[in-house]
Amino acid sequence: MDYDLIILGGGPAGAGAGVYAARKKLHTALLTKEFGGQSVVSEDIQNWLGSPSISGEELAKSFRKHLETYAGDIVAIKEGEEIQSVSEIDGGFQVETSGGVHTARAILVATGSHRRKLNIPGAKEYDNKGITYCASCDGPLFADKDVVVVGGGNAAFETAAQLLAYTKSVTLLNRSGEFKADPVTVEKVLKHPKMTALKHTEPIEIKGEKFVSGIVYKNTETGEQTEKSVEGIFVEIGAIPTTDFVKTLVALNNFGAVEIDPWTQQTSKAGIWAAGDCTNVRYHQNNISAGDGVRALEDIFNWLHAK
């Protein structure tokens, strides 16, 4: 085997596990397209522990720098490699990437997920220029402003609840006639005087100049179109776990997330662990993912040394 462990992903889960692998002297390769995870595009992250305010780009640089500080000849950092497949071989696993083939006794999948995005005019142009995907990360930037939440599930209503604490108003757009969120949550959020929820409504265009200034939406029953002035649009229409390359090896849930034992981060396949946004945990945050990666590494270390 080339390595004791291969870590797939350079977000908080992967980078955190990498630092611990280095300090525990596990011969490791960290393979990632880029460091930082989903937050790399955020202009101002205010909830990363120890940094009251940091950009996604700077956070990504700090992940790499921290890992490089301890990597030495223990952790091989292979940035720019895209994961193509993971397969089981005698004594471990083989990972094929855009950069080559690597083998290891154990695998940590920390490849995160990617947000399902709007596919309408203006959505691409104003991505992270008023269109955002994380109320906890970016919500405070929209204090005293009118914002829209797109979606009707628990994530959308939880996002709305967070935003109501500091925005001027929140309008939720739900394309169907029923909300998918828990009825108790829906009832509680809709009671807020700054909250409006529209059913049978879907966005059809995002408008702006340098940043978002408005949204056009239509009633799917009547066809009536409305343009609303807003400065923030929070998209909560689901996320897609980046897990295709392990779908034949480990158990995935209906959404494609890796099913794990929350005590250990172990998957259904001995020798493979998973951490962060690619797993079936309830909450997805940078700090949570980092902790999950560390927990996985602790268990991986014990597993490797017990063999």
Automatic annotation (TrEMBL):
Q: Where is the FAD/NAD(P)-binding domain?
A: 3-284
* PROSITE patterns with a match to the protein in the record: PYRIDINE_REDOX_2
**Keywords attached to this entry:** Disulfide bond, FAD, Flavoprotein, Oxidoreductase, Redox-active center
Top-level taxon: Bacteria
Q: Which organism is it from?
A: Candidatus Lloydbacteria bacterium CG22_combo_CG10-13_8_21_14_all_47_15
Q: Record keywords: Oxidoreductase included?
A: yes
Q: Does the keyword Disulfide bond apply?
A: yes
- Protein name per UniProt: FAD/NAD(P)-binding domain-containing protein
Instruction: State the Gene3D superfamilies in the record.
Output: FAD/NAD(P)-binding domain
Q: Name one GO molecular function term.
A: oxidoreductase activity, acting on a sulfur group of donors, NAD(P) as acceptor
